[in-house]
């Protein structure tokens, strides 16, 4: 429920952003937790900080023309939402997926502002992307698309201005093409203008693993707070991209067993535990579908019907995309003995799913907190670039683990302080909000 004092704020947001459902969903979830904050600090209401926070500082929408290998011309739409720079340069990934539209990029950018604040690092929030589908495209086509995209975007970027990274459909290959074009246009080797780079040319150790590893570190802390561990737990990780693969890797290292993962065509069930080397070969080397995994592993079955969430598991990590876990899925999981849900993807659980987990007493780690390891390690990449240094894997992983522990503890302390003990959603929203709001108050009307 949104507090009476904040209802008009929400109505205003909805009326000013018609048909942007994901953005409404993300802002609503935050407003539902800010009632106790404005009761304690009416100065935020007076200064209209929440309205300011919900309005991006700048929105850039642009045409991206490119030609495929047959010479046919395609026109895509590019976006960069520079949402909030109160705490540092805009920071957030680029998503290349046919579903990308303004409402999706705005929801991602809004979430990013809070997430980045929670890391405690000096980064503002932004997000971008294009409705381009890299699936099935040759390397040359992806390169031409990335070059055209950057030919417009470069003028808005800078180490102290706006620093993009990867997201769905944007991995090291795409970051390489994007950075190469930036370097060519500007004639500057400005490493810290983009993160997620290969470690061969300015990237950070652990950045590839960071979001998945970070989500598992967060889960480990959530369970530890209940005097429990991941050791021996049966888990499901949805998706089979960057976040999913490294969540599976860290879960296996910590003694858990992942029995299922998915892609947009279906899911695989492998009761013996996912063979990670095979999964990496299929998804990242061969760039194939999960059916290829099932064909090469006798213990696994591939399912195109039904949901991966119909399987029983104790701890689950939705790591594919927004709204992939519905209320019905949540009921199934709770009924099947699930004790914790940790969001690796951004907003993968629908609002009613989150409510069902809350009512059933299932621990719930929201994306803003649980998947902040990726952007936190991006900020560590910027630090290394600024000092022309590169850190060892173990040292960087240790920094990531400490950041995740801090985020976890901040969420718990803040939730208790604002009257909702153990509610990580409240803890993450309120702690993130306070850090950004205080900086905005200090800067005045800018
Ligand atoms: P990838 O592109 O590497 O992988 C995405 C995975 O999700 C793929 O397996 C893909 O399957 C699946 N997927 C995508 N869209 C859909 C859909 N509509 N329905 C079902 N499955 C889908 O992306 P990432 O792993 O990087 O990102 C996953 C999530 O994590 C996103 O929500 C992203 O915003 C979030 N995230 C990522 C961070 C990062 O560092 N990469 C940082 C923080 C959050 P298929 O191949 O069939 O499309």
What does this structure look like?
It is a single chain. The protein has 446 residues and is an alpha/beta fold. The chain folds into three domains: 4-53; 58-194, 3-Layer(aba) Sandwich (Rossmann fold), CATH 3.40.50; 210-370, Rossmann fold (3-Layer(aba) Sandwich). Helix content is 48%, strand content 15%. The protein has helices spanning 4-16, 21-31, 35-40, 42-46, 49-54, 102-118, 139-153, 172-186, 207-225, 242-253, 276-285, 291-295, 327-335, 351-360, 367-370, 373-386, 393-417, 424-443; strands at 58-67, 73-84, 90-96, 125-130, 162-165, 234-237, 257-263, 266-269, 301-303, 315-317, 340-342, 363-365. The chain has a seven-stranded mixed beta sheet, with helices on both faces. A five-stranded mixed beta sheet has the order 1-2-4-3-5, sandwiched between helices. Helix 1 packs antiparallel against helix 2, helix 2 (21-31) runs parallel beside helix 6 (102-118) and helix 9 crosses helix 10. NADPH dihydro-nicotinamide-adenine-dinucleotide phosphate binds next to helix 10. This is Glutamate dehydrogenase. One of its GO terms (cellular component) is cytosol. Belongs to the Glu/Leu/Phe/Val dehydrogenases family.
